[in-house]
Amino acid sequence: MQTLFPNSRAAEKWTVIRRLCGAFILLLSALHAPLSCAVEYTGYISGEFRFFPKNAADPRQHGNTNWSVAIQPEIYHEWDDGRQSIAFVPFFRWDEHDSKRTHGDIRELLWQKAADTWELRIGIGKVFWGVAESQHLVDIINQTDLVENIDAEEKLGQPMINLALIRDWGTIDLFMLPGFRERTFPGKKGRLRSQPRVDTSQAIYDSSREKKHIDWAIRWSHFIGDWDVGISHFYGTSRDPRFRPGLDSNGEPVGIPIYDIINQTSIDVQATKGDWLWKLEALYRSGQDSSYYASIGGFEYTLVGVLDSPMDLGLIAEYSYDDRGNTSPSAFEDDLMFGMRFAFNDAQSTEILLGVVSDLDSNGRFFNLEAERRFGQNWLLSVEARAWSDIADDDPFSTISDDDYIQIDLARYF
Prior knowledge:
This protein is mainly beta. It is built from 2 helices and 21 strands.
């Protein structure tokens, strides 16, 4: 019989998470009693199935089907008339084949103190910057948990001290980030991985302090009429590694990640004009090889009550540009995205997102489908499908172009 934890490392990670949960509950007991009345428990457990119609490019990768199970409890406690709170969100996934995707993380373990003109957050947290749909260009505080999903929306928890100064003319967020998180990558047996695979054990750092380098960030954000504007600067270890070819301990080719010290200045803007939503993200980055500029801009137009039904239809178009051109490690260096978002506005909160990204240089295509529907009060069914067509050999998508897949995820919330 196959055990829940296929290796001792996964079991150790889960043991650490269970112990942290216990320590957190004890801490809450000391802060406020009775515990049963003071703490909110939520979260979910989900089962995921992936089907890959094509065989893998590397025979060491797993076959056409894959199962996994994930759990993410959320524990929240507030006191001092709501001015102070602690949130704890651990995460763990067991994967049938890929030992690297069997992993655990503390998504959040954050104390927050709120006042009229400032807020202070200390611990492990998640911060999102950006407005675009097809890629999150300026989002940089948290590291991407790439083994979870290639859409870069799943993030690892980031140790941080965040002070927000709230003024009439906007909010200034100051970040001290003491501790770097390496990006996760699929293992030898995993799919949706590069060819050759990434060897994280050989990671190279620009800073002699490596993971202990302290990063800094500052952001101003404000609403100005119909406009939502954010201007940010980040100094520290890049969350997006470069890669160089190398060999692992067995003499097999691998990609070696390189984490540079960078400066990144960015802006994100969103304007709401009636049924139109206009979006722009742009950045200038130095320190990662040569300096470069990148941007993404577009719109979403919503047709309300299509064909006299309750359904809304959003039409999406975005253009991505990276001035490094074909030398860019990004798959979105000169790409146009078109999409449609169906919001059925029913009791089950049914939504469907369809999109296609076209490379204007090579005519390669990336197709994306995301759909979800709630059942009852506690169940959520999600379906995801991705496929690639006519991908050029020098396109970053080329190494996973054989990994078209359909994913079905059923989650039970509690």
